[in-house]
Design goal:
- This protein has about 400 residues and is of the alpha/beta class.
- It has 2 domains: about 140 residues, Aspartate Aminotransferase, domain 1 (Alpha-Beta Complex), CATH 3.90.1150.10; about 250 residues, Aspartate Aminotransferase, domain 2.
- The chain is built from 14 helices and 13 strands.
- The strands form 3 sheets. Strands 2-8-7-6-5-3-4 form a 7-stranded mixed beta sheet, sandwiched between helices.
- Helix 3 crosses helix 11 and helix 5 runs parallel beside helix 11.
- The structure holds pyridoxal-5'-phosphate.
- Pyridoxal-5'-phosphate binds next to helix 6.
Length: about 400
């Protein structure tokens, strides 16, 4: 029988993202030869536990909240007390105002990104992002009826604003930024945010329609070398923040985050209504009740994030010493390494022979690199160095 299915959805389902496929391969390999013998750098699952306050909050919420109330639907938009706490925190870090009534609690950043694409894109309209980019942006933009255009990076993986300017036209509704970046680890500089803001404001003027800036910030707190996170809303008025507690609180499996509309946008209440409608159309109402309450109690906390900077130093220093060409990561927990051959998939396959699981960069919109997720125990990085050395030798590096 001809099962008529949506071919687009079928294709998305079948081209399961390479990261998950590699993580599956790594899991099978660990079962075969032992966990300690596989250097699994595939997936961005934090290796540090959530802070103690998370465990305490789970316990206290369970003990203190009536079960019927705890497990009931929350308001579709999220608990008002959590939305107020999020708005308060954003106001403390940004000069732009954030009203709690324009904060939508989501199931992680993924749900926020998908809902926002649905909120603003009309069929045929475009979102733009800077390569290398989180691969799901394309799926979310296309699922909303739009498409994703990408701007190739400069050599240091900073955005190429001339290329952006050439792309901007009246069909571009949305620009998505992600700093610090998955997969490069590079953070946008203040100068970059100023240049981006100037370009977008100019295009808004020229086309007489807003261009929304969606700042995807799951790694906001994971910045090294004493850098403090910049808030995109301080630089550009039509900004919406997309956040996730997956990395900062080490809670990726609990699915919690938010969208927050800057009070400086044109008609923030209407933007918020469109977000609520976009989320509704995706079926994303009512993020999990228990974890909403937990996050509210831990709102100003993070997991012990210092390990990521130590891992960065160890890996970046170690690989450079072996002759690998690496992009210097300002934050997040990813290292982007130039492959010593043109084909990143071939290099990743060759690395597998040394039990190194590295993600080829093609799905991130850039050819010829691999991503190393170093959110792993430090001793694994230390133990992996001999494998990286053997691989370097095969390619005659150094
Ligand atoms: N955006 C970026 C840049 C990411 O790296 C990720 C996850 O790794 C997400 C969004 C999705 O995060 P979440 O787990 O909150 O859905």
């Amino acid at each position: 029988m001809n099962v008529s299915l949506n071919p687009q959805s079928l294709a998305w389902g079948r081209t399961e993202n390479n990261i998950r496929a590699l993580a599956g391969y790594a899991a099978a390999r660990k079962a075969e030869i032992g966990r300690e013998n596989v250097f699994d750098f595939s997936i961005g699952n934090p290796c540090v536990p959530p802070p103690a306050c998370v465990d305490e909050a789970f316990r206290s919420v369970l003990a203190e909240t009536n079960g019927v109330e705890l497990h009931a639907y929350t308001p579709a938009l999220g608990l008002p007390s959590l939305r107020k706490a999020i708005a308060r925190q954003l106001c403390e870090r940004s000069a732009a105002p954030f009203d709690w009534r324009q904060v939508y609690v989501t199931m992680g950043a993924s749900a926020g990104l998908a809902a926002f694409c649905r909120a603003v894109l009309l069929p045929g309209e475009k979102a733009v992002s800077f390569a290398p980019y989180f691969m799901e942006y394309r799926v979310f933009a296309e699922a909303a009826g739009g498409s994703l255009l990408t701007v190739p990076p400069l050599r240091d993986m900073q955005p190429d604003f001339d290329a952006l300017e050439a792309l901007l036209d009246e069909s571009v509704r949305l620009v998505i930024i992600n700093s610090p970046n998955n997969p490069s680890g590079v953070a946008l500089t203040e100068r970059s945010l100023q240049m981006l803001s100037a370009l977008l404001a100019k295009a808004e003027q020229a086309y007489g329609r807003p261009i929304w800036l969606l700042s995807d910030e799951p790694y906001r707190e994971l910045l090294f070398d004493g850098r403090t996170p910049l808030c995109a809303a301080d630089y550009y008025d039509d900004t919406v923040i997309c956040y996730s507690y997956s990395k900062s609180l080490s809670l990726p499996g609990e699915r919690i985050g938010y969208l927050a509309v800057s009070g400086r946008t044109q008609d923030p209440a209407a933007v918020f209504d469109a977000i609520a409608g976009g989320a509704r159309a995706c079926g994303f109402i009512n993020a999990p009740s228990l974890v909403q309450r937990v996050v509210e109690r831990c709102i100003d906390q993070t997991a012990e994030l210092d390990v990521y900077a130590r891992n960065r130093d160890l890996l970046y220093g170690g690989l450079r010493a072996l002759g690998y060409d690496c992009v210097y990561p300002d934050g997040a927990f990813y290292l982007f390494v130039k492959c010593p051959e043109a084909d990143a998939v071939a290099f990743s396959e060759r690395a597998k022979r040394h039990e190194l699981i590295l993600v080829p960069s093609d799905d991130f919109g850039v050819a010829g690199y691999v991503r190393i997720a170093y959110c792993v125990p430090t001793d694994m990085i230390e133990r992996s160095m001999s494998a990286f050395a053997a691989l370097a030798e095969e390619y005659g590096l150094k």
